[in-house]
Design a protein that fits this description.
Blueprint (H helix, E strand, L loop, with lengths): L6 E3 H7 L4 H9 L7 E2 L6 E4 L3 H12 L4 H9 L3 H41 L6 E5 L2 E7 L6 H14 L9 E7 H5 L6 E7 L10 E3 L2 E9 L5 H15 L6 E6 L12 E7 L2
Antiparallel strand pairs: 1-3, 2-3, 4-9, 5-7, 5-8, 6-7, 6-10, 9-11, 10-11
C-alpha cells in the first residue's frame, strides 16, 4: 500500500495510462486534471497512483466524445447518479454510431459483391438463385410520379429511419408480376429501401425467402421491356411461375460512365 503513495513523474504517470505527457500538461492548464504535487523550485508535476481512477474516467469520457466542458461540469459535482446518467447517454450515442458503422460495412460489402458480379456476369444469362427474407421500406409511386416527388419521398423515409447518409442503405424499384404479364412494363408501383439490420416487420414490405429468377439489363430504361419479355419467355419455357414483384436495383452506378453503361439487376420470386 505504501508503494501506491509514492509520487510518479509526469512521464511515468502518462506511460502508466498510455497517453502523451502533453495531454496531462494540457489537462492541468485548463483545470481539468491537476497533479498531486508541483515542485516549488522547478515546477515539475508529480502524480500518485490514487489519481488513476479519476484520470481513467476522464479518458473514457473523452473517448466517448464527451466535451471538456461537460467533463468539467461533472467533475465539479461528481456522484454515482450523475456518472450513471452520463454514461447511459453516451452509451446510447455509441450504440447509434455502431449501428451506423455496421450499416456502412454492410453497404461496402454489398458494393463489393456488386463489383464481383459485374466482373463475372454474362449479361445474356437468366438463372435461378436462392435468397433470404428481407424487410424493405417501400414508397408508393405510379408511372405519373415525377422524379422530384420520388426524391422527396425517399428523403422523408430515410429521415424516419434515422439514416445518417443515403449510402447507409440500398435502393431500387418494384413492379408487380401481374403488370409484367399484362404487358404494362412501366407500371412501377414502389421504390424500396433496403436498410441493413432492420429487424421490425410491422408495416414493412417482406421480400420473401426462396428462389428467384435473376437477370441483368444494360442500357436505357425505355428499352427494358425487351429484357422483361425475354425473362417471361424463359420462365414459360422452364415451367416457372413468377409471383409477387420484380425487384430492380442498379449495380454499377459508381462506375457507369453514361446511361448506356448502366446495369440493372432484376430479381423475381418463383412460386
Amino acid at each position: 500500500m505504501e508503494e501506491k503513495n509514492k509520487l510518479l513523474t509526469i512521464g511515468q504517470f502518462a506511460a502508466l495510462h498510455g497517453i502523451n505527457k502533453k495531454t496531462l500538461m494540457w489537462y492541468d492548464e485548463i483545470g481539468l486534471f491537476c497533479p498531486a504535487v508541483i515542485h516549488p523550485d522547478n515546477g515539475y508535476r508529480f502524480y500518485n497512483y490514487h489519481q488513476s481512477p479519476l484520470l481513467e474516467t476522464i479518458l473514457l469520457l473523452r473517448e466517448l466524445d464527451v466535451s471538456v466542458n461537460e467533463i468539467k461540469n461533472f467533475m465539479k459535482d461528481r456522484s454515482a447518479e450523475r456518472l450513471k446518467c452520463l454514461l447511459a447517454e453516451k452509451t446510447a450515442e455509441l450504440d447509434q454510431k455502431i449501428l451506423h458503422l455496421k450499416a456502412v460495412r454492410q453497404t461496402l460489402y454489398s458494393r463489393y459483391q456488386d463489383m464481383s458480379t459485374l466482373l463475372a456476369m454474362d449479361l445474356s444469362e437468366i438463372c435461378l438463385i436462392q435468397k433470404e427474407e428481407r424487410c424493405l421500406v417501400t414508397v408508393e409511386i405510379d408511372k405519373d410520379t415525377p422524379f422530384e416527388k420520388e426524391v422527396e419521398l425517399i428523403t422523408a423515409e430515410t429521415a424516419k429511419y434515422q439514416l445518417g447518409r443515403l449510402h447507409d442503405a440500398s435502393y431500387g424499384s418494384m413492379i408487380s408480376v401481374q403488370s409484367l404479364l399484362s404487358g404494362d412494363f412501366d407500371d412501377y408501383c414502389s421504390l424500396f429501401i433496403e436498410i441493413p439490420f432492420l429487424k421490425q416487420k410491422k408495416g414493412l414490405h417482406i421480400r420473401p425467402a426462396g428462389y428467384y429468377l435473376r437477370a441483368f439489363y444494360q442500357g436505357r430504361w425505355d428499352k427494358m421491356e425487351t429484357r422483361y419479355r425475354e425473362i417471361l419467355s424463359y420462365a414459360k419455357k422452364e415451367g416457372l411461375k413468377l409471383t409477387g414483384f420484380s425487384y430492380e436495383k442498379g449495380i454499377n452506378e459508381l462506375v457507369a460512365q453514361q446511361m448506356e453503361d448502366y446495369i440493372v439487376q432484376i430479381e423475381i420470386p418463383v412460386a
